Amino acid sequence: MPNSTEIPFDIKALTWLGTFLYGFFILMLLIGSIILLAMNASHNLRGIIIRGDIFHHSATSLRTNIVPILNGNFYTIDLNNAKNAFEMLPWISKASVKRVFPQSIEVILKEHKAVAAWGTRDDSKMVSNSGLVFESGIDDEESESLPQFIGPDGQSELMLNMYRHLVPTLEPLNVRLSKLELSARGSWRVVLEDGAIIELGRGAVDVVSDRVKRFSYTLGKVVSLFNKNSNALQYADLRHSDGFAMRLNGVTTSGHPDAGSLVKKVN
Fold first, then answer.
1. Contact 126, 116 (CB under 8 A)
2. In the chain, which residues have pLDDT < 50?
């Protein structure tokens, strides 16, 4: 005989449904409250705190350029989009953005450290100390004091590596590297600050660097023969397998008995 106290299934189902609907209503009410709270004008952003590297940007210019494209208030702003917006600015290498209660965001910026201009001086591009090409902005006077790299796209890191090897190699000559060029076929060329050109030829960084080291030694001996210094160099060609060719201001090697042998001898 069935138990007379057992609750019928349809009554149970209605109870479960009522409980579910009540819970659903509370959840929707909570979500709606959160949305209304987030949309409340009292939670609009009231400040952007800028920290870190701002050597090439003022806090005012950053706010002027960024604030108009930031969407949302303190709760709804997309921090990742804000981060990307700051990193699109010239010179900015990395940005981190976080909320600062109650109505601000804090932005910490890191700038690129420029070591060379990339391409022509009018390109407004530079090479960072990590070998990355970045936009520096229009008419950046800082590029005038830096060496210039001219080479194929994607080779900036290789060129920076070569530059770092060549600078100490040329240092004994008291000359400054003004321009480093890499052709599409892999041939290297250096232009010194006084306009002298050195054709380095092809090869890996260590191979070319050793070639320049031997040339520096040879040049020192050649200029001493004529009571000149390294600034007398006009042109040098290091692409020969058995020696170097060079041209000095006011000097020809044909008139000196020892000059020809010194120019040709590599080891």
1. yes
2. 1, 41-42, 254-267
